[in-house]
Amino acid sequence: MRVNQQVNHTVQFHLLSEEQLEEVYRAALHLMEYTGLDVHNAEARALLSGVGAWVDGVRVRLPSSVVEKALGSAPRSFTVFSRESDSSKDLHIGPGRFHYGPGPTCPNFMDPRTGEVRTYTRADARAVATVCDALPNIDFVESLGTVSDVPPAVGDVHEFAEMIAHTGKPIVAWSYAMEGCRDIHRMAVAVAGGDDASVRRPNYIFYCEPLSPLVSSKEAMDKVLYCAQHRVPLIFTPCVIGGGTGPSTMAGIIAQAAAESWLGLVVSQQLSPGTPFCMGGVVSCMDMKTMTFAYGAPELSLLQAGLTELAHYVGLPLWTTGGCSDSKVVDEQAAIEGALSVLFATFSGGDLCHDLGYVESAMTGSLQQLVTMDEAIGYVKRIARGIEVNPDTLAVNVIDEVGPGGNYLTEAHTLAHFRREFWLPSLMDRQRRETWEDRGRATMGGRAQARLTELLASHEPTPLPQEATDSIERVLTAANARAEH
Amino acid sequence: MAVFDDLKQAIISGNRAQAKELTKAALDEGIEAKKIVVDGVAAAMAVVGEKFRANEFFVPELLIAQRAMKEALSLMSGESVNHIGTVVIGTVKGDLHDIGKNLVAAMLEGAGFRVVDLGVDVSPEKFVETAKAESADLIAMSALLTTTMGSMKDTVATLDSEGLKGKVKVIVGGAPVTQSYAEEIKADGYAPDAASAVDKAKTLLS
User: Is A244 within 8 Å of chain B by CB?
Assistant: First the structure.
């Protein structure tokens, strides 16, 4: 037994000091108060004016006290509930906890059987949800594509309908326009069992974005207002392209991103104080040769970590990014870029890490990459878990008994601990060469593909109750009819 | 000519004020505008292009040099300086994303096009009216949102109904836009990025 002892329960990671975070925070407030943001939504502007903002045309400037009040009202922790009674699929967002999932809206999709890059269909939304449901290290679901085989205006609604039927893990939804936002909410409410149930125990998160630099479109604000009104947990996530739509210095990118995200915070908290709100987002540099937004760059990891620390500093959860790559294929580059960003997202504790499975700088969604990243997460989680120091783990008595020149393989202590101390890979290969050759010389890519194929063939998500299915069908029918006109 | 060494350097290093000053000085000395363009401005941009290819210069240096080039050329428009063509460019109706479009506009200017930038949220009517008013050779449209892409089809249709199809070419781009979409809406061209947009524009106008 010990007394007066402090331990590091996990890996400790610190990027910015408190003083640095305070300075970045002050810079974001400064931008909001003295530069302001363009808000292309009259209702939002009126609301902001009512709470003390200065409004000149579309330009809104918020005194720092207004922002600080909103920061105070948004919760640091909240739960999003699985539609299944299995509570292990609930998403508990709060200090020290981190979760992973794919990303939405890629224009292209890597065929889960052939690897060919093609357009994305409704059937793919089902496949992605199924695989996410099965993968042990994936906690929430997004589609990795844009449904193209339904009327374009209702692709978002069809995507949500397919996904919610094939996974019990919470979905992070998005929509083109307000009609889709409302339809998705109707479906989620039907699954939750009514409006009241949906408010008290939300079962999905809604995601929308400002436009860098410092702009919020009418549609984005409409969605923020709607989500606040219905108390839907909301992510308002900027995508700042360093050097293009943001400055080229890391600290400035973070300050600008924070200002953009907090505009959504103030609006949501003013309309409905306490609405769960995630700051975001997706920040990296523009590659100055190709003009690509570099999803695989080390700057992404660095910026996301800084943004995470700022979010936690002001008491907000962060929607972060990782597991993504600029590579056109799931190759060594995709593995390095994806694994390293997963590592940093984990270490910084970014609450919800999305875009796992993105390749080609978000142009293509890949389940092969997602499966690979699932393995990387397992690997990283073991490191993040840290080292436990106590008499049992120091094992001095065991070492003494085994003595110089002995071996530990059959020790009771080894048997008692090795399964928890040593991570057991599912995909990484450690066989001897001869065995590896005899068994077909499989590469990581081959093994990930085999795993994907097997999951798609064998995993059976818990179906929705018939009543929910019927409600969803009604919403889809109405949406399709609307699309015809 | 040594007299152009300073002008070339000013453009290469992106010094707008100096580029303008030196061009004015050359014109005041009686040097032909065409000669200034070929031996001064174009020569400078050739060096810039080389440095870009060699990974010495990147996009910011390229754009800044082009801006200085534009300053120099502004003193000579109306003289015997030929633009390759006139382009009307914008982000389509309902869409506010413009960083890609801005890059294409800057690259097109750098390549010698006269560019009329309509900004964002541009209706099909506005594209076509402006193209007529400016005697444009090319309309260039950008979209980031799949929901706004449809506006590109409307612009092509409006152009057609005004009898301008074929006389004014149309080029499209943006993350969700593809070659097959461009063909589907009967645009004349598609480009995946700013550099190839310039090549495509040149090809279409040749």
Answer: yes
